[in-house]
Structure formats: structure tokens, C-alpha cells
Design goal:
about 200 residues, mainly beta, six-stranded mixed sheet, 14 strands, globular
């Protein structure tokens, strides 16, 4: 079986079986900057919390308020990451402002901190709501083996144009100096189908 030597940042070495992708180290899923840290899930969790100051929330359901200052001037992608711990597994919840062609957009999606085959055993829903309106997305989290950019660019999540987002704004702020969106959701484990 082919193997490779993996050099950890703390100078430890580990031999990895190339054919066994479960032992292949994961890349840091933080999207705010280029980060070259790799490792197992526990190492990445510590890294995200300590080095990137990412918050961890416990539970299967969540509600977050995202504030985007000066939404009329979306010059570059901005992304917020929150970690969720449920079912003894961890998930990355992303909310990002970006341009699709020249249109300002927002996207929210989740990724599973593990391999794709285990990710398929979970589902999630996201909802943005406010002012009597609601928009819902339901999907299967992608593995962090797929980069955040790959998931975003494939539009595999809850997508909201800036114009539509203004209808959900929880603050009837007419000055357009900031956009406040409430995004809530939940994660559940799919039951295997028995024949």
C-alpha cells in the first residue's frame, strides 16, 4: 500500500496510507484568509477556536443575527463562520456576502467536519425571515474536504440577493447603513431506509 509522510506544524511526523482517505488530514475550513493549517478534526477545532476566534455553539438548532455594515458598498467577499456541535459531530455554518457576476449576494450554508460519506447521513435547513417574510433552504452538508469556495461557487445553500435581503431586514432602517438578517436553522440525522 502506498503511503506518505505528513509533516505537522509542530514538527511531528505521521505516516498516512494514501488509499485510506479517512486518515488524510483536513485543511482548515476558515474562509477569511489563506490558512495552511491541516490536521484531524480535533486539531482543526482547537485551531479555529484559538487562532481564528471562531465561536462554538451546542445544539441541533440555532438562530444568528448577521449584520452587514454599509451593504450598498459590497466591494469584496466577507464571510462569517460559526461552529456547531451536535450529535457528537461538528459543522461549519457560513454566512457570506459576495458578488455573483456583478450582483451583490448573500449565501448561507453548512459543511460537515468529516468525510463526505458520513456527511450524507445528516440534513439541515436554513431560514431567513423578517417583516412577515420567510425563505427556507434544505440540504445535505458537504464535507470540509470540499473547499468553502467550491461550495459557495456551486451555490449549494440559501442564496439571497441584496435587494431581496432588504425585505427581510429586521431593522426597518431606511438609511441603508447596515443590513441585519436573522438566519435560523437546524441539523438532523437522516434515518437509514430499511427495505
Amino acid at each position: 500500500m502506498p503511503s506518505a509522510i505528513y509533516q505537522c506544524p509542530n514538527d511531528d511526523t505521521e505516516e498516512l496510507n494514501i488509499e485510506n482517505s479517512k486518515k488524510k488530514p483536513y485543511k482548515c475550513p476558515y474562509s477569511g484568509a489563506k490558512c495552511n493549517v491541516t490536521g484531524d478534526i480535533q486539531r482543526l477545532l482547537l485551531h479555529l477556536r484559538n487562532d481564528h476566534n471562531v465561536e462554538m455553539h451546542d445544539g441541533r438548532s440555532f438562530s444568528h443575527r448577521y449584520v452587514h455594515h454599509n451593504p450598498k458598498h459590497l466591494h469584496h467577499a466577507t464571510c462569517m463562520l460559526t461552529l456547531l456541535d451536535c450529535f457528537g459531530r461538528q459543522f461549519c455554518l457560513y454566512f457570506e456576502a459576495f458578488h455573483l457576476r456583478k450582483t451583490p449576494m448573500y449565501i448561507a450554508f453548512m459543511q460537515f467536519m468529516g468525510d463526505e460519506e458520513e456527511a450524507m447521513s445528516f440534513s439541515y435547513s436554513l431560514e431567513v425571515g423578517g417583516n412577515g417574510r420567510k425563505l427556507t433552504w434544505q440540504g445535505v452538508p458537504r464535507s470540509i474536504r470540499d473547499s468553502h469556495k467550491t461550495v459557495r461557487d456551486s451555490q449549494d445553500g440559501l442564496i439571497i440577493t441584496r435587494k431581496l435581503a432588504s425585505f427581510f431586514c429586521t431593522d426597518n432602517n431606511t438609511t441603508n447603513k447596515e443590513l441585519k438578517l436573522k438566519v435560523s436553522g437546524r441539523v438532523w440525522r437522516e434515518q437509514p431506509i430499511s427495505l
